[in-house]
Amino acid sequence: MKQLPDEQTMLSILEEARDFEQAARAMCEMSTEIAYKSQKRVSELKQAAQKEISESLAPTQSQES
Hints:
Radius of gyration: 28 Å
Order of helices and strands: H
Structural class: mainly alpha
Largest sheet: none
Helix content: over 70%
Number of strands: 0
Mean pLDDT: 91
Distance between the termini: 91 Å
Low-confidence stretches: none
Shape: rod-shaped
């Protein structure tokens, strides 16, 4: 039958697991922030492009009238 690790080893493994969890949470928060900023920037670029298209079509539409 397999023996479980001693208490000191178990505490060491637990401490490492906590460190990894903390690092994973930090990476998750950072990636969420990057995704939010990227999404916001894409939205701004889309709006600017739509505005530019609308403005470039406005004189053409008034000439057709």
